[in-house]
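For homework, think about our next protein:
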Amino acid sequence: MRALQGHFMKQEDKTLPLVEHFYSFQGEGKFVGTPSIFIRLGGCNLGCKGFNVHIDGITGCDSLKAVHEERFGSSWKKIDDLVPIINSHLKNLDFKPDIVITGGEPLLHYQNPILLKMLDYFVKRGFRITFETNATIKIDFENYTIYKNVVFAMSVKLKNSGEPKSKRVIHEAIKAITENTKLSFFKFVLSKDDLFTKEIGEIISCFKDTPIYCMPMGSTSYELSQNDKAVAEFCIANGYNFVDRMHIRLWSNEEGR
């Protein structure tokens, strides 16, 4: 398989690159604390070296293993059906947890029939499904109407990602999501030194009815503690929602959490 950075999966491809799947709770955003099944797909169109997480000589965000196929792709599983994987987590539960599709950038695969089959199956059964996305990919909602029935957590990247604005802020993609879905929200990761009041204001200026959640930066509990109070005060001053990153607070950057 070719590297997925910046490319959609080919329509004829009969598999999806699955990095990991696990059952835990949502650690951030609007549904923090909610029991959730996570599906992490491989491939991303951004590198985000500015987040400064280091794994095996690679620098980037805290989901590096889902971003860099050239280094970590050998551990990705090529799967042809997501439904039984999710059902394996549901078999011992007598309630409906959320289903969270994350990455990398999962919307690289939004046209993939394996993903579409899974969405159709679980939307019809009343599950809440959230896509965690950088909101740079414009979805064709008219031809892929199933996406009108899911939630989008839009983690639009700021200057601290190290990516140029022309790559990380795509207003057409954000507009398509906010206008076509039943629920979407912004979430931003901030540090005490980089609060980006002006930049966040510019990004959300055309989407004033979309909720905004801000979280402290850090890959350990200690790092979060260095930023959390400043981000909380920032939210109070600007009318944004503050939310912690509870999975990191409890387990740092442990996989499967």
